[in-house]
Structure prediction request, 102 residues.
Amino acid sequence: MLTARLGDKSYGPSFYSLASPQTREQLDALIAKIDARIDAMNELAETRWHFDYQIMPGNNDRELRRMKNDMRKLGDMMVPVAGDLGISLTGDDVTDARETAV
Prediction:
């Protein structure tokens, strides 16, 4: 949805394409970080610990928490993306107060 792409197919203009170059650079960095964490977790799932075991304390739970935090940061990027589009949003607008702390 962010990039209006599915695989190699584009579905027109997107929030990403309309964002400033600086915002796109931040988004790219976060997405790359999340993708790397997912790849590492998948590798672990295929070779050592199924995902169910990765979430157990002492196994890979710290990495899972880091990925959750990176995904939260990606969600928080709605604020600068909206700003690039002339929409006023704050962190409070996009954050659930009941959500676990970063």
